[in-house]
Amino acid sequence: MSDNKLTCEELLKIKSKVDEINKQNSAQNTSSAHKFWETQPVPKLTDSVKDYGRLVSEESMKNRKIGEYSLPPGFEWHTMDPNNENDLNNVSDFINTYYLEDDDGHFRFYYSPEFLKWALSPPGQEMTDLSVVVQVSKSKKIVGFISGVIVNMTVGITTQKMADIDFLCVHPSVRNKSLASVLIKEVTRRVINSHGISQGIYSAVRHIPKPISSVKFYHKHINAQKLIDVGFADKSCNYSSTLNGSDIQNTLSLINFRKMELKDINIAHELLSSYMKKYTCFPVFSLSEFKHWFIDNDFVSSYVVVDKNNNPVDMISYFKLKHSVLKNPNYNSIEIACVYYYTCHKYSLGKLGENMLTMAKNEKMDVVNITDIMDNDEMINELKFALGTGTLYYYMFNWKCPEIASNQLGKCVF
User: Fold this and answer.
1) Are the C-beta atoms of 82 and 117 separated by less than 8 Å?
2) What would the DSSP string read from start to end of 244-291?
């Protein structure tokens, strides 16, 4: 390779610098973009938050709005039924067309109907009013969607129920109608009126008032040639074994590393519950929720390391997503493994991650994604993940929270 050709690492560093400059420029011109958030119970960007607590009392929140918010003429509210195949298919098609897309229009996240049903129907929430659709009254065509599930979150020393809000998506043709703001207000109203909860947690790639934390994305290529062919990775990545995936072993280095089974859930649940207490912000899973998120589905691969009695002493997991490939005649999708939750009671995260990468490779994943939450820097550095582009911001609704370092954040997002 000639001396004047940039390496993959150098390209990624440049992209990261550009992203940081864009963030700074964006922050200088936010008055109009943030007008909606100035009316909501969230801190201003200029606020210095030193303690935890509600911004608006529960009673005041409950008195804000009783009935549904008004929509522009020709549109109506609809609640997605996760047990209705037609509803799921329509929402999946809508999200997969208009939700998250890269800046160049080459890739888009793909969420199958089955994935959405699993993600939006944890135990006890198989049928709620928090999967909110705006549709055209006559044609029933979807033009907006937002969802929420109720989670137990520990923030600081307080554990409480919060609404975990996700999948906010608006059709491009109606983005001038402030539909996103109305969707946010309507799902907030439903969370308060139907569930008696006035706090929420959410994430976005946009910098709005006011993040509690921000995280960076990293990637470990497995099928480097495919990633290069579709434009996900630069061709210079093929020159480095740590970037092209050839350093990932084909066989496990831990002989006591195996798939998590139903018989493991009591011990694995306790291992995770105790481990997560080291962080400032993290979800608290019940046993039935643990089973739902880690065992009883086709979307998470969970593994344990066992002792001589075949009992788990540590665990690690990843959830599986797809990128739709939009502009390549040879490939339709990229298979992505996203590092999920784990424990490191007995084994280092580097060792657990090494074996997790082997399993992801055996599962024919093309790339492993990770953010720098929790102790993930250890895995990122030891296993040579490459810095990606962009930043993900975490927010809380109606809850004051001092800024949380990414390594004290224990909340994964889909």
Assistant:
1) yes
2) HSTTS-SS-S-TTEEE--GGGHHHHHHHHHHHGGGSSEEE---HHHHH
**Position 278 pLDDT exceeds 60:** yes
224-251 core/surface letters (b: 16 or more CB in 10 A; e: else): bebbbebebbbebbbebebbbbeebeee
CA distance 145 to 80: 9
pLDDT bin (cut points 50, 70, 90) of residue 114 is: very high
3-state helix vs strand vs coil in the chain, percent to 5: 35, 30, 40
**Phi, psi angles (nearest 5°) of residue 274:** -75, -35
What's the maximum distance between 2 C-alpha atoms anywhere in the chain?
Answer: 67
> Where are the strands (E) in 117-197, listed by range?
131-136, 142-155, 158-170
What is the C-alpha to C-alpha distance for residues 183 and 262, in angstroms, rounded to an integer? 38
Q: What is the dihedral of CA 40, 46, 48, 54, to 10 degrees?
A: 0
Q: Would you state the structure tokens that stand for residue 349, as one six-digit string?
A: 């995260």
Is pLDDT above 90 for 307? yes
Amino acid code (one letter) for 98: Y
Query: Kind and range of the H or E element at 118?
Result: helix 113-119
Looking at residue 51, what is its pLDDT? 95
Residue 168's SS3 state is strand
pLDDT band at 239 (very low <50, low <70, confident <90, very high): low
pLDDT tens string 383-407: 999 999 889 999 999 999 999 999 9
Angle between helices 265-275 and 287-294 (to 10 degrees): 100
> Rg for the chain (alpha carbons), in Å?
22
Strands 107-110 and 75-79: unpaired
Distance, in Å, from the CA atom of 318 to the CA atom of 301, rounded to the nearest integer, reads: 6
Phi first, then psi: what are they for 182, rounded to 5°? -65, -40
Output the average pLDDT for the chain: 90
Query: Would you give the end-to-end CA distance of the chain in angstroms?
Result: 38
| CA atoms of 83 and 113, how far apart (whole Å) | 10
Pull the structure tokens for residue 173: 């043709």
pTM: 0.90
